[in-house]
């Protein structure tokens, strides 16, 4: 029997937690490690950035998120350890202005993207390998 183990080295990752206000995350400073739940007031994520979330953490947007990847440099949201799912992206009572473009969202124990009273623009995204439905919306 062959047993493969994957180690994830996050020692060089930019660690983020708590309230995120007026930040820009770049590919050059990736990966970004979310060790505890985050609440996004205002955040821009540049093409090619990688966001790794610890087990059971929530990436909650309460203001706006602009994550604009490209076809050649998508933005990736996923678990820090593939066998330890996170809670996915949660738009919670958000207004206009949020956008996910050319993003991959995977490995959540919930829906990959949940929207509760919000209207984010989601285009050219891959939302896959999550435990529940890929996109869940309540208006």
Summarize the main sheet.
13 strands, parallel
What general outline do the C-alpha atoms trace?
A: globular
The whole-angstrom Rg is: 14 Å
The total of beta strands comes to 13
Number of helices: 0
Considering DSSP H and I runs of 4 or more, what fraction of the residues is helical? Answer: under 10%
% residues in beta strands: over 45%
First and last CA, distance: 49 Å
Tally of distinct domains: 1
The ordered string of helix (H) and strand (E) elements is: EEEEEEEEEEEEE
Q: Which structural class do the helices and strands define?
A: mainly beta
Return residue spans where pLDDT drops below 50 for at least 5 consecutive residues: 1-8
The average pLDDT is: 89
What characteristics describe this protein?
13-stranded parallel sheet; 139 residues; mainly beta; single chain
Structure description:
The protein has 139 residues and is mainly β. The chain has one domain (14-138). Helix content is 0%, strand content 49%. It contains no helices and 13 strands. Strands 1, 2, 3, 4, 5, 6, 7, 8, 9, 10, 11, 12 and 13 form a 13-stranded parallel beta sheet that branches. The radius of gyration is 14 Å and the shape is globular. Mean pLDDT is 89; it is low at 1-8.
Q: Secondary structure elements and their pairing?
A:
Blueprint: E1 14-20, E2 23-25, E3 32-45, E4 50-53, E5 59-68, E6 75-79, E7 89-92, E8 99-101, E9 103-106, E10 113-116, E11 121-123, E12 126-128, E13 135-138
Parallel strand pairs: 1-3, 2-3, 3-4, 3-5, 4-6, 5-7, 5-8, 6-9, 7-10, 8-11, 9-12, 10-13
A few lines on this structure:
The protein has strands at 14-20, 23-25, 32-45, 50-53, 59-68, 75-79, 89-92, 99-101, 103-106, 113-116, 121-123, 126-128, 135-138. With 139 residues, it is mainly beta.
């Amino acid at each position: 029997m062959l047993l493969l183990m994957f180690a994830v080295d996050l020692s060089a990752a930019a660690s983020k937690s708590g309230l995120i206000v007026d930040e820009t995350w770049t590919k050059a400073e990736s990966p970004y490690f979310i060790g505890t739940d985050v609440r996004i007031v205002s955040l821009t994520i540049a093409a090619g950035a990688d966001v790794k979330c610890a087990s059971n953490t929530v990436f909650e947007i309460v203001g706006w998120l602009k994550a604009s990847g490209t076809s050649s440099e998508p933005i990736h949201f996923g678990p820090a350890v593939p066998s330890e799912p996170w809670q996915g992206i949660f738009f919670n009572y958000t207004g206009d202005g949020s956008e996910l473009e050319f993003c991959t969202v995977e490995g959540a124990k919930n829906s990959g993207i949940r929207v509760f009273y919000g209207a984010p623009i989601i285009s050219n995204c891959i939302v896959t390998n999550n435990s529940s439905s890929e996109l869940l919306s309540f208006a």
